[in-house]
Write a structure and sequence with these properties.
By secondary structure, the chain is an alpha+beta fold. It folds into two domains: 13-189, no CATH class; 198-354, no CATH class. The chain is 46% helix and 11% strand. The protein has eleven helices and eight strands. It has a six-stranded antiparallel sheet with strand order 2-8-5-6-7-4, with helices on both faces. A two-stranded antiparallel ribbon has the order 1-3. Helix 1 packs across helix 6 and helix 6 (119-154) runs antiparallel to helix 7. The chain binds zinc ion (ZN). Zinc ion binds next to helix 5.
């Protein structure tokens, strides 16, 4: 989250309320600017579906009295808590009800996760991930545009200095959107085929319910051998991001943790092989780190002890340089910070001690 490092400590109560209001308006306005007229899949102007970013049945399994916490509840910045107050957290509106109801039938069936996921299922998960990220990045772009506009109105002198920063953020997000559309188009074209462009890396089943649910694509900076997987400072338009798809699904009495990747990926191969070779305990420790360091929007059980959620909060605030004058150095720093084998002490949420059932 690009404004996660805002410091609210120096704000008075009134200023905080004002800032919250402003961010609330930005989010609302940006969501509406990013809205599509037609369903992205069938092109019809049919009513949009309240699509969930994680299958609903997973969320129920970690909820306490119907409630669960989201990542935004974690990030200490009070400004951000507004976002979790905006309704429809964890939902997006980009495809119609008809499409959502027919395309994701396997995906929405808890039984589908009792055995090794089929290619068809991986394709459905990838499609959902792409749709979600298209919506997310398009909303972010609108948000940056409105902040830029507001700065020009309120702080014209300062705004000119900030313009290049805003513009580079917009360019980066636009590139992300294009990549997501590529994934979306591939997955959409494969909906009717028995094959997909994806291969499973790992599928781990646990005999208890983990306290966390997540689904999404992450762009790993480095793997377990300090190799560069994604260099976010490479501005070559032909350089494409290689994503790892990750699902952490708490089921009724069990949990599944799935990783898979696109057949086209080449920079990921060494990491994939390492992950496959590991014991389940080692692998889950690595996936736990990926989740803590890269995922921006997971849900977790309110039953999780407070000291654990404060550790998660710390991990979530790991940030990369957004703008850099020295890309090589920034990349080296990022590889050090995101080294999946570096010495660190993180609660392993997949371990039995944190299970909710
Ligand atoms: Zn549709």
């Amino acid at each position: 989250m690009w404004f996660a490092d805002l410091n609210t400590d120096d704000l008075s109560k009134e200023q905080l309320i004002e800032a919250r209001k402003m961010i609330g308006q930005f989010i609302k306005q940006s969501k509406s600017e990013a809205k599509h007229e037609e369903c992205l899949i069938c092109g019809q102007k049919a009513p949009f579906c309240n699509s969930h970013t994680i299958p609903q049945f997973c969320l129920k399994n970690i909820a306490d009295n119907g409630k669960m916490k989201s990542f935004n509840a974690l990030v200490g910045t009070e400004l951000l808590s507004v976002e979790s107050g905006v309704n429809n957290a964890g939902t997006f509106h980009i495809i119609c009800r008809q499409c959502d109801g027919t395309i994701f039938q396997d995906y929405e069936d808890p039984q589908a996760y009792a055995t090794t996921p089929s290619s068809k299922l991986l394709n459905q998960i990838a499609l959902k991930n792409a749709l979600r990220d298209i919506n997310k990045h398009e909303t972010e772009i609108e948000m940056i545009k409105s902040i830029k506009k507001m700065m020009h109105e309120k702080e014209p002198l300062l705004s000119f200095m900030m313009d290049s920063c805003f513009d580079s953020q917009i360019t980066a997000r636009s590139r992300d959107v294009e990549e997501c559309y590529d994934i979306f188009n591939d997955a959409k074209n494969n909906l009717t085929s028995a094959n997909s462009n994806y291969h499973l890396i790992s599928f781990d089943q646990l005999g208890y319910v983990v306290p966390i649910a997540f689904q999404g694509m992450v762009a790993l900076i480095t793997g377990v051998n300090r190799e560069v997987i994604n260099d976010q400072y490479n501005y070559d338009p032909n350089y494409s991001v290689e994503y790892l798809h990750l699902s952490v699904f708490p089921l009724k009495n069990t949990s599944v943790i799935i990783t898979f990747s696109d057949d086209k990926n080449t920079r990921m191969i060494a990491f994939e092989n390492e992950l496959k070779k590991m014991t389940i305990t080692q692998r889950l420790e690595i996936i736990n780190r990926i989740l803590m360091w890269y995922a921006e929007d997971y849900f977790f059980s309110p039953k999780l002890p407070k000291e654990v959620s404060s550790q998660l909060e710390k991990a979530a605030q790991q940030m990369q340089d957004l703008v850099t004058i020295n890309p090589e150095q920034s990349l080296r720093n990022a590889v050090n910070d995101y080294d999946l084998r570096r010495d660190t002490c993180l609660p392993i949420l997949f371990s039995y001690e944190y299970s909710v059932v």
